[in-house]
């Protein structure tokens, strides 16, 4: 199981029957594959769809039916289509139970950066700023460190922010971190790791929860 | 009443260089590809464009960018458009990035006679810099102003000669809002039907917002993720 798959499988365990969830581009999109059996989750795509289904076979791909990552998708029974202003009314209006998105940096205050590296990269915020401002719960799903081993969980973000004090939870292949008023609380660590090892790979200071548990992932589905 | 014009070229014939133009679509989905091709053929320049994305290298608004027609752009996402990213990093194109929901709502407000409104989006980030903020209840909001344009080029699925429009699946996106927010709205459609054929309960854009209707001559509709993977050959 890859690190990304571990993250996706762990977050899928947070879903409850009846949730409306927006999944960001990239790693978060993978989570849709691991929804626990017996639970109905409606995925929203901010380009204007509720009830997003999995990818079609190649010969059934419809250019008028894509997700926010511009990948072809399918319709689930009971899906609906709507315009962008309505899509973001439901996002901004607090109707989404959960928004799960990737990040380049997160910090001790729950700040998040994921849309630009000044002078180097201009990706654009797309719908990320609206999602973090409007969803009831914001979960960041990302690999713990960059490819060169730098921590992405910092004392303070150095990149331009996507949102200020917006993140509720951070999930990586190593751990689950809850953002609290006191700081970042380590609540789960991957099997075989301990809190000290996670802290060694993290720039931000981690408070260890008295109920620290092993991060179990959903093996089935 | 008959808003139908015969060709895309005719539909954009009087769009002046230097105009502010809204273009519907999300990525390459639901873009007015025939109207874009006609604009490129006309070589209109110095355009101020408003669109969520700017196509990709080799298709959609990417063609306008390659033809040097765009002076400034307002959107929410650059993504995989390498040419756009390079132009912005070299400061050769004036790009304003706006959160996608704020962009949609500013356009909606522009068409609805609402000059400004407050949103929570972007508070504490660069998009709120220099903007008025106000505490309402226990939360602070950012004042955002409406957006309008000289021209909106939009794409619908079916329409009639009165300008009533319906859309197909996720190709709706920014098109209905943009239809309301410009002095001149040109709708490109795939199929022209007789008035009365569209179920009035299903009409998304009532004809009052639309000035011209043109049936697109041909549709390529590439799927963006595949188009990029294949290097533009899909």
Automatic annotation (TrEMBL), chain A:
Its EC number is 2.8.3.5. InterPro entries: 3-oxoacid_CoA-transf_B, CoA_trans_fam_I, NagB/RpiA_transferase-like. Belongs to the 3-oxoacid CoA-transferase subunit B family. It comes from Tunturiibacter gelidiferens. It comes from the Bacteria. GO terms for molecular function: succinyl-CoA:3-oxo-acid CoA-transferase activity. This is 3-oxoacid CoA-transferase subunit B. Keywords: Transferase. The keyword Transcription does not apply.
Automatic annotation (TrEMBL), chain B:
The keyword Transferase applies. GO terms for molecular function: succinyl-CoA:3-oxo-acid CoA-transferase activity. The keyword Hydrolase does not apply. Transmembrane segments: none annotated. Its EC number is 2.8.3.5. Keywords: Transferase. Coiled coil: none annotated. SUPFAM superfamilies: NagB/RpiA/CoA transferase-like. It holds the Pfam family CoA_trans. It is an enzyme of class 2 (transferase). NCBIfam families: pcaI_scoA_fam (TIGR02429). This is 3-oxoacid CoA-transferase subunit A. It comes from Tunturiibacter gelidiferens. The lineage of its organism: Bacteria, Pseudomonadati, Acidobacteriota, Terriglobia, Terriglobales.
